[in-house]
């Protein structure tokens, strides 16, 4: 691996290193990149004809565009620089942490071609392929936000990243932190939260994004670059606070409070006067409240209340929970279920309408200037009335 050039990228504050490497060495490196990095994108379905042509081109000595990789390392200072042999040894040593920003499908094609030749035992073609040259760019000293930013800008117009992948890259550092007993589950784990303090990582992030944007609607692909800019601004304006952690703990404490105050409530279809259109929104308190629609509604509502000066800051919200009045639990929760059942029956987009309802429920519940302040049942009725006014 030979270093050809080193340019500093001022936008993402990282060094861009251009290397020349043999296809054989890159094939070996790709095993670490794709097999050991849990945040690397997976293969997507693409035109087999295009990649069959690329295989033939590679066998004829075709030079393909550089493959772009990144190595995130908070301890690395790109401005100090390294000698070529030190940089090369460092990248090879840490190659299992490399992420492919651009050239994933080319990498899979290279791997497929090597496997084909290894199976065919065509030693001459295999030897020739191993010695061919490939250019790779490595962003060194880049942070996770920079990785996502470059990934988005490099892949414009190509196979888009899934929202899951964007979110996991953007917020992945939080998976390494002690979260006071809270467990965040990656979508790749393919597991439903089983305990009170377990949440899907993607859903919590969507709730936090709703807090940042003051918007209960879920994230879409076009909002991710704006989200990056919001995070960069927050990182400079909130040096003594971590708003993601504050949001997570505020939401978790709300869930724990509602579950504890519900006194092991379970749904009884004989106690509800309304005839439901299907299964109730939840059959116990945990299932009533640990929902992604509620996470986003809570986030956007608290953000709005802070903007309106009804709440000073996010950390103040959990101090209110002990005074939440559920009233008669069975009446309150049946009212909650009946209102959500109506929304399910009439909504064109159920999830979005539910998010709207929860947004207004929490605005009513925590607005000290309102008549429903800390009264859960009254907040349900007021939120439902607002929902009807906005949708009819």
Automatic annotation (TrEMBL):
Its recorded name reads DUF262 domain-containing protein
Species source reads: Maribacter aquivivus
